[in-house]
């Protein structure tokens, strides 16, 4: 059996649902193949940044964060070796002179959000959403271009789905990615997650506990439900050796560091809860060169989840791609030259939003996870910088929340924090200790460069 469409989308996760909606609203005939239409049960993708909320709204999907017990996310609160610091998403002055708008993210159960997205996709008259696993991509023998895929449905029947354009949005463990990029995802650590019955000491803020061993992240995913993650590098896990050893680590090392009001619920979660883990991956994006195919979402580009940016990048990508493929620019998706041109533009234009989010995720993770003296100087500087107030953190907060898109501003603020950290050390130093502090300052700048050179180079991939 054969079916022909304008667009075939493989995977109805965040990216797949978003692009399906965007293109269907433009009048394209879209088929979406999703391996399982059951509500996903994942510990990933639970914070949506304010920039992601804005992208949802542009796609007409803003109601997907309603009715799922989502909690507003106003900023981040850090605990660092006895000190605390909060930053929030500062209000933006509205262009028309009206009241300032306060950007706010949301945190929720990933599965509930995806279920709402899929329901919205299924309501689009131009979309056919099917439970089927794409098992093979179809190629035009003459051009080598992608012309669709074979989908296997429950019961074993297979169908060829042919389309002018195939969008690969099959997630982090994509089965097809390797055919189109020489880059492979790199993973140096895993997030180990628990669900706690508790409230956070500072409601509506994501919390980070840093400088007490492995970094810990917590945020609300329901009225009295908290997700807690601990980031365990693969090398440390090999030393721990088993899930039971991770539980023991949590019991002995983590319970004492979390706020007292959460210790009882954490103890209960460690003893009786589901302890699950997922790899934290990094994958720079490359331009998809196969005619008739675009990769989107985690299949194309991944960053460390420390800042909760993946869904925001995927949604912003969907908005941009929808704009570039608008029928006023690309009348027919069968026009290979026009589509290839749009894909080229997409690769470079997306850097404006993806680069700051990717670099800040990798950079912040590098700052949080390091436990050497030089990195402690940057951690201390970061905490003090945030304590300096809105004047210091407004722009970094907007960049991290995907509200402002500017890779150069991100680099400027990253190094500003590194220089500020050195300034603190110099001010605290005595004349006798000055040569050592100056030497350490140089090391700190080198450490800051080493923390972000990899994601910066990654952004320059062709
Ligand atoms: C531990 C962890 C925590 C994270 N936390 C956050 C966070 O708080 N905030 C945030 O924004 N991001 C977070 N992320 C990243 C985020 O989860 C991803 O960026 C996002 O889910 C990517 O969406 P996607 O649509 O590309 O992939 P997915 O959401 O994974 O969707 C892929 C879909 O494709 C389907 N599929 C796969 N193969 C096939 C096939 N052959 N045929 C048919 N269907 C197929 C899958 O079933 C799935 O539904 C986190 C990641 C990790 C690892």
From TrEMBL:
Major site of localization recorded for this protein: endoplasmic reticulum
Enzyme nomenclature, EC number: 1.14.14.17
Cellular-component GO terms for this entry: endoplasmic reticulum membrane
Squalene epoxidase domain: residues covered: 163-438
EC category: oxidoreductase
Pfam families, sorted: DAO, SE
Residues annotated as domain FAD dependent oxidoreductase: 6-36
Oxidoreductase is among the record's keywords: yes
Cellular localization per UniProt: Endoplasmic reticulum membrane; Microsome membrane
Gene Ontology process terms (BP): ergosterol biosynthetic process
Keyword Glycoprotein attributed: no
Entry's transmembrane regions: 398-419, 431-453
Domain of life: Eukaryota
Named cofactor requirement(s): FAD
GO molecular function: flavin adenine dinucleotide binding; squalene monooxygenase activity
Record's bilayer topology term: Multi-pass membrane protein
Role this protein plays: Catalyzes the stereospecific oxidation of squalene to (S)-2,3-epoxysqualene, and is considered to be a rate-limiting enzyme in steroid biosynthesis.
Family assignment from sequence similarity: Belongs to the squalene monooxygenase family.
Record's protein name: Squalene monooxygenase
């Amino acid at each position: 059996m054969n079916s022909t469409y304008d667009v075939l989308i493989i995977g109805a996760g965040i990216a797949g649902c978003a692009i399906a909606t965007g293109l269907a609203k433009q009048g394209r005939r879209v088929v979406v193949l999703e391996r399982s239409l059951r509500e996903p049960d994942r510990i990933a993708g639970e914070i949506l940044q304010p920039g992601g909320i804005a992208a949802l709204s542009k796609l007409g999907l803003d109601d997907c964060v309603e009715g799922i017990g989502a909690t507003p996310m106003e900023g981040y609160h850090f605990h660092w070796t006895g000190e605390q610091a909060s930053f929030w998403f500062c209000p933006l002055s509205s262009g028309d002179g009206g009241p300032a708008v306060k950007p706010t993210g949301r945190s929720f159960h990933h599965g509930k959000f995806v279920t709402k997205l899929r329901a919205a996709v299924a309501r689009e008259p131009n979309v056919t959403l099917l439970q089927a696993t794409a098992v093979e991509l179809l190629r035009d023998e003459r051009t080598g271009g992608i012309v669709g895929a074979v989908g296997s449905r429950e019961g074993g029947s297979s169908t060829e789905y042919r389309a002018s354009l195939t969008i690969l949005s099959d997630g982090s463990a994509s089965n097809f990615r390797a055919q189109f990029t020489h880059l492979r995802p790199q993973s140096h650590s895993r997030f180990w997650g628990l669900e706690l019955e508790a409230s956070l000491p500072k409601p509506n803020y994501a919390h980070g506990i840093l400088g007490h061993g492995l970094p810990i992240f917590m945020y609300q995913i329901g009225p009295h439900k908290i997700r807690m993650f601990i980031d365990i590098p693969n090398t440390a896990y090999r030393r721990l050796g088993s899930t039971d050893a991770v539980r023991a680590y949590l019991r002995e090392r983590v319970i004492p560091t979390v706020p007292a009001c959460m210790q009882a619920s954490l103890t209960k979660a460690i003893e009786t809860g589901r302890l699950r883990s997922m790899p934290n991956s990094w994958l720079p994006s490359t331009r998809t060169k196969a005619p008739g195919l675009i990769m989107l979402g985690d299949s194309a580009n991944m960053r460390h989840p420390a800042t909760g940016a993946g869904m925001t990048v995927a949604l912003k990508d969907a908005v941009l791609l929808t704009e570039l493929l608008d029928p006023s620019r690309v009348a027919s998706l069968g026009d290979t030259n026009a589509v290839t041109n749009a894909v080229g533009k997409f690769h470079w234009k997306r850097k404006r939003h993806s680069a700051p989010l990717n670099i800040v995720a990798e950079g912040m993770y590098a700052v949080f996870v390091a436990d050497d003296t030089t990195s402690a100087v940057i951690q201390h500087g970061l905490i003090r910088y945030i304590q300096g107030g809105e004047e210091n953190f407004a722009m970094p907060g907007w960049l991290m929340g995907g509200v402002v898109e500017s890779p150069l501003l991100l680099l400027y603020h990253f190094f500003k924090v590194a220089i500020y950290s050195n300034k603190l050390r110099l001010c605290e130093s005595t004349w006798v200790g000055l040569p050592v502090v100056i030497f350490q300052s140089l090391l700190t700048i080198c450490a800051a460069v080493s923390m972000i050179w990899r994601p910066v180079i990654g952004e320059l991939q062709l």
